[in-house]
Amino acid sequence: MGARNGAASNGKRVHFPPEKPLVTDGGRVIAPLTIAYETYGALNEAKNNAILLCHALTGDQYAAGVHPVTGKPGWWDVLVGPGRPFDTNRFFIISTNVVGGCMGTTGPASINLATARPFGLDFPVVTIRDMVRAQAMLIDHLGIETLFCVAGGSMGGMQVLQWAASYPERVFAAMPIATAPRHSSQNIAFHEVGRQAVMADPDWRAGRYLEAGVRPEKGLAVARMAAHITYLSEQALQRKFGRKLQDRAAPTFSFDADFQIESYLRYQGLAFVERFDANSYLFVTRACDYFDLAADYGGSLALAFKGSKTRFCVISFTSDWLYPTSDSRAIVHALNAGGASVSFVEIESDKGHDAFLLYEPDFFATTRGFLEAAANARGIARAAGL
Amino acid sequence: MGARNGAASNGKRVHFPPEKPLVTDGGRVIAPLTIAYETYGALNEAKNNAILLCHALTGDQYAAGVHPVTGKPGWWDVLVGPGRPFDTNRFFIISTNVVGGCMGTTGPASINLATARPFGLDFPVVTIRDMVRAQAMLIDHLGIETLFCVAGGSMGGMQVLQWAASYPERVFAAMPIATAPRHSSQNIAFHEVGRQAVMADPDWRAGRYLEAGVRPEKGLAVARMAAHITYLSEQALQRKFGRKLQDRAAPTFSFDADFQIESYLRYQGLAFVERFDANSYLFVTRACDYFDLAADYGGSLALAFKGSKTRFCVISFTSDWLYPTSDSRAIVHALNAGGASVSFVEIESDKGHDAFLLYEPDFFATTRGFLEAAANARGIARAAGL
């Protein structure tokens, strides 16, 4: 798809010198700071057609085109490209790797100049707001005053909410998708299991595995397997796998992957460790756990959005049990109470949380419709000849 | 409570010699076979007041009284005792450790006489039906022809269903609670995560850890943590823990157990490895995965219960997402189709799957009412002077 939509990776980097540090919510300093990002489409003369896409937990800047590491389509390739809802003929799409990530933006695998070795756990624990602060530095650097839209799902949706709260005047439209205004107890619990799985692996070596030339692959794979279950729905698992056996007619009465679901999960674990850094997994899960937008506004989520002029489109999926519709409703209620403009769509889907990454006709139609209306309201020209 | 209800552990064992082997569904032989069990109350002269309690995944024979290893009340101590629903003044309660378990019944930690070392993974993979076959050997040994009742929750409920299907004439009444007629894809997935967590621990040593004098404690703790989340409900977690911090006013911006839910989960993992054998965990989870009662009857669950004279009481809990009410409804539909006598109660509770182990007034009233009516129908005398 990448080749078809012409969105080749452009491997962009911006380096902020020590004089322009990122000061974290935890009171630490990240400097120098590198932000890795991709862009698709072109910034127009008015600089009013920029859309920032925010990635989820294990996503990265490669939203469209072919991912240079996995060789697979970017995480939102189905949505981003010429004629697609995030239309690269009309919009300038920016997608960054979050701070703490592992695809080029400064994170725990980066070299700590103070010690000349990888940060490991010496990297500051970052928050969603820190991620957004870093993105704002990039947007400043690109000379963009106001983003036409900020969009993303899951942890990406948290960033969208944080953008709208921290920089309301810089966000014309916002699409928080399959997300929540705070991480629930159950969500923290699942993240903690994943972290403990990583840390239980002796190859993790208290976070210093890179220097030892090893990686906690088994622990990270277990973490991914547990998390992956939460991205799907019971119905989707039953439909796709049920109790079907893998390449055999009868059970083996062993601990082999008799069932297709076992084989599938093991593959998900193995594929993940090929592309993701274990320490980054700790940091991004922790950032989600700390997310509680209302807490920054005296416990009132409505205050976070008070008087906001941003147009919101909140989207949830019926079978998402990780960030269920009730979480999106809480966002919508707060936006209404804050007096913001908001449309809310719950998409019927049996695909669970992962639905926000998949082709779902109603989801696509909603995204396209919202962006077109907002673009027209903002006076962004349609692409010539299309 | 144990001391109060006088149900002290009696540490009973029955040893079946090699001439009385347990032949497993996988075609293997377990011989000699030891079954560890507890009894509470007394068998009456007519031998018609015996109730078999079947334990869940990580339960054991210590249903009532004080558990000799943990020092805590047995898993159903709230329900079992004089004047309690499983009234030890009226009924003779039997509770066995399942085959493959680790509290005295032959399992992977037992010595394999052929090699003079622990079985480890050489132990036969057992099924729910194998567990029930072993229990039937014990019931024969005790000279009991017909059980007044077989009851249990979760994996215990699977054993109840298997008893009713395999030995309908030996089961007067049956209480399958918070269970399912087959393990779903999602349930297999969670079990597979747990097994992979155990196997990822280098101290597991391909199952030969006992000989090496080590135990895969970290892997087993991770497995337990992941499983434990599935035993609770999102609502219960939110109510009990929410986003409350543990002994601190502000987050530490670290990977310490900042949140109470993290601290709680870590404790659950640590406590579990004190009392449970890692290989047994592999075997009991596998037994659940293989459970699909209808498959033994040409795909028809109704056929499993055709013409059954057993009285059934099926119980589910509203917030149980591991074995949701839809699973219980499938059992009820099959029982109805098979012409069996069945009552079905869905208990309103926010405590998730674990509700079947807790004091829930409606659950207790249902259990008491069902057992009393069935006991009266069977002509079991009330306890004298009560």
In the predicted model, the low-confidence regions of chain A spanning at least 5 consecutive residues are none
CATH topology of the largest domain in chain A: Rossmann fold
Report the structural category of chain A: alpha/beta
Name the chain pair with the biggest interface and residue counts per chain.
A-B, 58 and 58 residues
Strand and helix order of chain A: HEEEEEEEEEEHEHEHHHHHHHEHEH
Largest sheet of chain A: 8 strands, mixed
**Quaternary structure annotation:** homodimer
**Average residue pLDDT of chain A:** 96
- Structure summary, number of beta strands of chain A: 14
Helix content of chain A: 25-40%
Radius of gyration of chain A: 21 Å
Report the CATH C-level class of the largest domain in chain A.
Alpha Beta
Briefly say what this structure is.
The structure is a homodimer of 386-residue chains. Helices cover 35% and strands 16% of the residues of chain A.
Could you characterize what this model shows?
Two copies of one chain form a homodimer. With 386 residues, chain A is an alpha/beta fold. The first copy, chain A, folds into two domains: 2-182 and 293-378, Alpha/Beta hydrolase fold, catalytic domain (Rossmann fold); 188-285, Rna Polymerase Sigma Factor, Chain: A. Chain A contains twelve helices and 14 strands. Chain A has helices spanning 2-5, 128-141, 155-166, 185-200, 209-212, 217-231, 234-240, 260-275, 278-290, 301-304, 325-337, 361-378, and strands spanning 12-16, 22-23, 29-30, 33-40, 50-54, 80-81, 86-87, 92-96, 111-112, 117-118, 147-153, 171-177, 311-317, 341-347. An eight-stranded mixed sheet of chain A has the order 1-4-8-5-11-12-13-14, with helices on both faces. Chain A has a two-stranded antiparallel sheet with strand order 2-3. In chain A, helix 4 packs antiparallel against helix 6 and helix 4 (185-200) packs antiparallel against helix 9. The radius of gyration of chain A is 21 Å and the shape is globular. The mean pLDDT of chain A is 96. Chains A and B meet through helix 4, helix 6, helix 7, helix 8 and helix 9 of A and helix 4, helix 6, helix 7, helix 8 and helix 9 of B. Chains A, B: It catalyses: L-homoserine + acetyl-CoA = O-acetyl-L-homoserine + CoA.
